[in-house]
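Q: Given only this backbone (112 positions), what sequence would you predict?
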């Protein structure tokens, strides 16, 4: 079940436009993603570098598209994400964080 969920997230990320995909992979899906900051991604890893405002907007749209794909795929329920008490991005991050960490660990295990 969890592996299927993670595969769906990887599939959703692959469907993103190239810039959004690169941003999500650099920040959340790399083997050293625990040590990478948003600043590091928008100022050093993306070529050309971009402003924090632009980075935040692109990241938010990417998260939104991933969640819509997961809802369309019946992987998550809309009410699990769209809560009034927290922002959309906070709820999306909560749902994706553990899975992205699992994906990174899976990649590290296969690389060894």
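A: Predicted residues:
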């Amino acid at each position: 079940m969890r592996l299927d969920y993670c595969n769906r997230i990887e599939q959703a990320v692959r469907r993103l436009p190239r810039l959004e995909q690169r941003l999500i992979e650099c920040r959340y899906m790399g083997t050293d993603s625990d040590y990478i900051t948003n600043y590091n991604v928008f100022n050093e890893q993306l070529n050309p570098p971009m402003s924090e405002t632009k980075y935040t907007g692109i990241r938010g749209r990417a998260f939104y598209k991933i969640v819509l794909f997961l809802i369309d795929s019946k992987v998550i329920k809309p009410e699990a994400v769209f809560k009034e008490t927290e922002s959309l991005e906070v709820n999306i991050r909560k749902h994706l964080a553990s899975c992205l960490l699992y994906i990174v660990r899976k990649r590290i295990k296969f690389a060894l």
